[in-house]
Specification:
heterotrimer; A mainly alpha (314); B alpha+beta (528); C mainly alpha (272); B: 528 residues; 4-stranded antiparallel beta sheet; C: 272 residues; mainly alpha; two-stranded antiparallel sheet
Chain lengths: 314, 528, 272
Amino acid sequence: MLALIAQRLAASVAAAALSALAVFLLVRAVPGDIVGQMLGQTGGDPTAELALRAFFGLDQPIHRQFLDWLGRTLTGDLGTSWYQGRAVTTMIWDAFRVTLELSALTLLISTLIGVPLGVWAGIRAGGPVDTAIQGFSMFGLSAPVFWIGLMLLVGAAAVFDWSPPFAYVGPEEDLPENLSIMILPVASLCLLQAAAYAQFVRGLMVNELRRDYIRTAQSKGLRPYAVYVVHALRNVLIPLSTFIGLILVQILGGVVVIESLFSLPGLGRLILSAIQGRDYPVVQGALLFVVLIAITINLVIDLLYGVFDPRLRT
Amino acid sequence: MDRFMTGRRATMLAGLAALALPRIGTAADDDMLYGPADPQARRGGRATIGSLVEPPALDPFRQAADARIRVSVLMYQGLFFEDDSGIARPLLATSAEAAPDGKSWTFRLRRGVKFHTGQTMTSADVKYSYDFMRDAKNGSPGAGDLSMVEAIEAPADDVVVFRLGRPNAALPMTLTNKYGAVVPKDFFADPNSGTRMNEISVGTGPFKLKQFRPNSVLVMERFADYWQPGLPHLDEVTFAVMPNSAAMAVALQSRRIDLAMFSRPQDTQALERVAGVEVKRWPSLNQKTVDLDCNYGPLKDVRVRQAIALALDKKAVMDASIAGYGKVIGTMVAGMQDAWGVPIADLPNQTVDLDRAKRLLAEAGHPDGFEIDLTTIIGYDWMDPAAVTIAEQIRRVGVRANIKRIELGVWIRNFRAREMGFTFNDWGTTPDPSLLFYRHFRAAPQGADFRNWNHARASELLDRGQEVSDPAQRKAIYVEFQKILADESPTIMMFSSDLLTVNTARLRNYTQHGTGWYFGLAKAWIAA
Amino acid sequence: MILPGLGRLTPGLAFGLVILATLALMVAVPGWIAWQSPIAIDPSRALQAPSAAHWFGTDDVGRDVFARVVYGARVTLGLVAGSLLIAALIGGGLGLIAGSTGGIADLTLGRLADMVQTFPPIIAGVVLTGILGPGAGNLILALAVVYIPTFFRIARSGAVAEAARPYVEAGRAAGSSEPAILLRHILPNVLPLVVLQYVILFPLALQIEAALGFLGLGVAPPTPDWGAILEQGKNFILVAWWLSLWPGLFLLLSAISVTILGRVLKARWDDA
């Protein structure tokens, strides 16, 4: 068990280090830099361009820039945004709170919808309820998230003459306003995630209910069927907990387009706008942060598997 | 609309007749700053403005982005106001006087002007601000426009003198609100002061910064000590970033926002029938062009550029891309056509002539045409339909265009590196021909000459156009320049698209400036 | 009715197959289905609602949306199919080698795959298309890079499992060369896994492709692509819903039909 943890941990650290290097190189491989954007369609005299490039340290050789950044990053300092002047860590945190709220609400609601649907479909496997729920989850898994979002936006305007307030406010400032901003994005994401849940839980339930001990007990009429459903459900919860991790990673990936579609100031938007503006400290910091989250979640899932599945412990 | 146009034309003619020197307004027309006043205006209220773009940062000295200029003009002011009739009206200055040799300008300053920081503005602040801007080492995109300035003096508290290496008739129009502004002396002593401007504003404008949350909102509040009596009317202005024009339209319908600017009339179509919102059209100082890098493949040959110009039907392109909501132009943005333009009929290469185009191509060694990449910029909605249309048009003479879309940052890089190829462009101007043409077409190093045109006569004319101050002489110079420009076609100016604003009925007296910047909010008000 | 390789024909499977067949027709011979040009413009009939002349309406430069959607099938589905094919060949090939040889190559490739997989696909797509520039070819490359690790992992774990089997050991003992073992024993057993993965990933990759197109990073006009039509339509959604509805619907149907196929295949092979 310890060996497994050590091995996984080492792999994660290696992946993180490689990712840091990749992030650094990739963002610089996109043509154009901040200096061009600041000067726009002006110039002729190169003085301004050279001065700005020196100001941002872009005149340094690339390995120097990398080592500088790496050194500061290892001490927890991600630098400041070239446009905003704010600490990148603060910007990430502010954006992450939005993404986190979006993800958490999505996770909560899609669990509340998806798990019962999956259980229901599993119990009624093969019946019309199952078919209907499977149809729903097929739809949810196949529909492009941004398309659903677009349709919801227009639908809300057409049917209720309502649109979300686009100026973002945090939940601590004004909760009702915050929730009315979140409702459409969460709804768009929930469809996909609830569908994924329903699908996953249904599969587990079907397997569990097929098990011999339940079949035998059921055929002998020992106890009411419902008791076995509860029993089966208990066995479903364990793999489900690891599935949540996967879902979380998926949501984090899926929010990029949704944040753009509803102009939410979350992590995805932060990264996209920083890439567009060539704000290297922000792109590097935010991408590294996302990567670290993904690595951590994967690590936790791996370890949980180890805990739940004794065969992997050797 | 009509009233608006006639009014503007009248002012312009009056301006031309009255002044022998460059057309500069006087302090007497303070009332005309930022648009017409509304006697019914009442103080109070908040307005929310929806916008598709967001300023990357608010530093007026070091951010060239149009999205920055749009909003920062409400917080920061230069010495003059770029009235879209083409007159530079005194803003922080009260008068301007050029020496007979044109090599020095004396500006009197307004007294009692307060910065948002509470200090009173003096000539030392003005000198400091423009000295900072013109020093290229400080990285201001506006530095190039002030390259002829040799020294700035502040002989008295309310007088500044600009000493020039060579005359520049466009100086007052250069000292307007696009780049730079007057800020308190020594503000930039701290190297991080540029980014501090995202937290506080230090200008003299009618609004001051309350909060800037990138990717979300920008809030400005009324500056209580603003120098124009009674202005601004609004207590607070919020700019909210909107994801797309459909979302803006929805937000207007549900009164989430009071004002939004749209780029294509199709976007506002759904709003024209909605009660309680008003759709308005305004003439603009922007131009949609196709640029031709004179160093790029077949475009090196002037005959090829002419052939492309002759194959282009500008009206059809405009119809396809902005449903005809604009004006076809020759070589001058629509808003300045009357004052500075050449009638389109007098310019070469303006009407479709496929036979001549084919002949020119054959002479240039391309009897069967050639293949070329045509670049559009992602996010500029008008470009794709325009590109599709142009590709069809030039195919008639054998030029096969492959449309290539690139991201704005990449495009700027190519443009600045003078590697633009064959590309669309969308640019606006401060209403003076020198500011419109000089940096784009004057050969390096004085100009940037992005299109590698390197034309001696054109450069000479552009220099003279700056030096001469008599309006009639200046016009003659720019007429000759424009004829060369049309003949050589390093750029094909196609049309100026009208600006479209939609506002809720409660937002009153908003006038849209031709630049597309939000000057009009200084005089807008909210009806209860 | 029993279909070879797919088993009993359920209503669901029938539905999926009908859509797949339609899509295949659209890809193979779009001209038979849509008679109008997908690229000829006519501003005089811009943004017309669906009618007998234009079943799906027209777009902002007057092109027939039905034709664009039909011809778009080849572009959109082709891009996804192509990029996944590249990913399957590279990822699968590397996984096969890494899994059967092990050692330092295995370790290095594994870490590289970890790294790529830690980036959310959309972000990876945005960064890669930013570097390479938008356009069909680069989009294929970007999508391929995103999915190479998935194929790598599947093929590698399959190969590891196979390599441990007694008959492989026996083959080695009998003097078969490593490449021969790889081709004769391991590949045939790993191939179904890769094919199944291909089918499972297809709907996901389709969504990423559409999302990138929607962000403006897809193919250049005038080429019809579903994601790009959606991007173009988003601004007109209040006045011209048809520009957004149809391509979205076809994306949905394509993903559903491939998912159905994937499930049937998976069920069959799991039983086998």
